[in-house]
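Model: You mentioned two targets. I'll fold them one after the other.
Researcher: Yes, keep them separate.
Model: Target one:
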Amino acid sequence: MLYLAISATLSENIKSVRVKDSVQEPAEYTFQISCNNCREVNPAPVLINSVEKHDMAGSKGEASFTMKCKFCSTECSVNLNHFEESLGAEPQISKDKRKKSGLAKLSTDSAAILQLDCRGCELTKFYFDNNLTFVVELVSGNKLECQFDQGENEWYDYDDDAGEEVSITDFACEFFKGK
């Protein structure tokens, strides 16, 4: 099992940060994918969301994403599930559940937002700056939306109600292998 974790330094007035993702407006997660059989990297990034389901060839199951490798015809699939809801002050998943999932080494300042079950392929890169919107919940109760631009890993805004700056710095995403 593969997990996608996000981490960041949040200003003290931020309660949580989560991906804006719902059935009505599904988030499109963008990945670089490679075939496990021939090791060729798919020439174009792939978009996967948790709402769409596709029939898997030669199986009764469904997956969030399916494809046939253009080079060796291997059937590949990825099933995307949400794991931890948000990055913030209060832990979303207990330490025991993280340990059972093989994420004991994951920092408490990180959140494993996605659980990715990859069959016949490997996700090698995540592009967090393409069409992904984050909802920032503030201590004041306000909610702001943010996106990270190409090459940027920080975001700044202003909370009008509290009269103070809001910031996310050192934003990063990385894959973790778990159970």
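Model: Target two:
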Amino acid sequence: MLHLRVISPVSRTEDVLAMLRVQPGATHIVLTRGGALDPEGDAVQADLARECADEVVDALEAMGLAHTGAITLEPLDTVISDAATRARRLAPGDPDDTVVWEELIGRTREESTLNATFLAFLTIACLLAAIGIVTDSPVTIVGAMVVGPEFGPLAALAVAIVRRQGRLARRSLLALVVGFPIAMAVTAVGALAAQAAGWLSLERIDEIHQVEFIYEVGPFSLVVALLAGSAGMLALVSSKSAALVGVFISVTTVPAAGFAVVAATVGQWHVAFLSACQLGVNMVGIVVAGVLVLVLHPHRRRAFRGTQGARPDRVW
């Protein structure tokens, strides 16, 4: 379930309460008159079944509360209540099949922001991938896959395409277009230093056998990217974050970027080109799969119904 907290102008409070009372998936409704100080108004709280959360948020936004008050949603891990059990039973659908769009947009927006933390994780992941390539170590390559934060912007781009959110799309593309070149440039400096120290050479690259799969582009590259992207988006939609680890170690985005840098450093331009192609195939496959999952999802119609009355910053 989700916990809803609303700051409502006094003139809108009765409308909020009336909407919540007729919502079968809403329970534990609490009203505190004059409880909100900034912005001023009444504080309304309720617990919602995930199945009805998107509909409730749409109704609150239609009342203008995103501008005149505030709408907050928080996940609840444990709720012990007969009323909550009844609300979950009466709410139509299944919680795992429910898209809470504002929650999904908020999560992907946060994970697709270009900042120092994102760049640090991406750079560390590329450096780990380069070390795994030089040492022919699949274990290190898997570590680089897990550390890499690139799935966040790719998932956000898929959400932006489906919801027609230009701002989110630009944010995601900025993180990818700026983040990867910076991480690869730092990795190139490290590779050149390793070459100068005698740790990296053309002969050493030719002896690599266990990590050749990184640059071997084929039909299965796209298939794996599509499957991983689908699993990742389903994990985000259903809030099953444990499945994301499997997604991270299924695709070779960061390892391909690292391999392209290492191969270019020693003059293996053909391998560098194939690695770059592998990177592109994986990124495109993940985004396409994410879009397909969201478009084919049972709650797709509700999503587009909410978009029709969207605020200006929610359209292209």
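Researcher: Noted. Anything on target two?
Model: The chain has two domains: 2-96, 103-308.
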